[in-house]
Amino acid sequence: MRVLLQRVSRAEVRVGGQVAGRIGRGYLLLVGFTHADTDATLTWMAEKVVGLRLFSDAEGKMNLGLQEVGGAVLVVSQFTLYGDANKGRRPSFIDAARSDAAEVLYERFLGLLRLGDLSVASGRFGAMMDVELVNDGPVTLWLEK
Fold it and tell me: Is 18 assigned a catalytic role?
């Protein structure tokens, strides 16, 4: 599982011109799944995201988590995180989980994040989506399990 996490002051995802998900302060997660992902992988990643302390405290140190700042999460499926462009000019997506399996993983991951007592919004799996965000930082992390 790969996650590109961006700390945002706001983010929104639209499908066909309609808002599918929107958050204020929090994390925008672009998530991709591979064939080897398991429930343990999803649990680890959800706990990691919920537990990260990426917001500044009164002293300006990244020491506060989502729950402490009233933050939310916007999750967008992104199979291209498993694109391999080492050879040729067109990336290979052989490492990405097949769509039917990835959708199950995506829905399970959303459920696990919601167990963290957070506001969780999402895009629509497999849809062509427009994502708009305003970075808070910039703070961008690459998480992989």
Answer: no
Q: Is 144 among the domain residues?
A: no
Taking the complete model, does pTM exceed 0.90, yes or no? yes
Please give the residue range of the domain that contains residue 67: 2-134
Strand ranges, E, within 1-145: 2-15, 18-23, 26-32, 53-56, 62-65, 72-77, 119-122, 129-144
Q: How many domains does the chain have?
A: 1
Structure tokens at 100: 């039917």
Which of 6, 34, 55, 78 is catalytic? The answer is 78
Residue-wise pLDDT for 28-52, tens only, equals 999 999 999 999 999 999 999 999 9
Q: Which domain CATH number covers 29?
A: 3.50.80.10
Q: Is 79 a catalytic residue?
A: yes
Catalytic (active site) residue 80: yes
Query: Per the residue annotation, which of 6, 33, 55, 79 is the catalytic one?
Result: 79
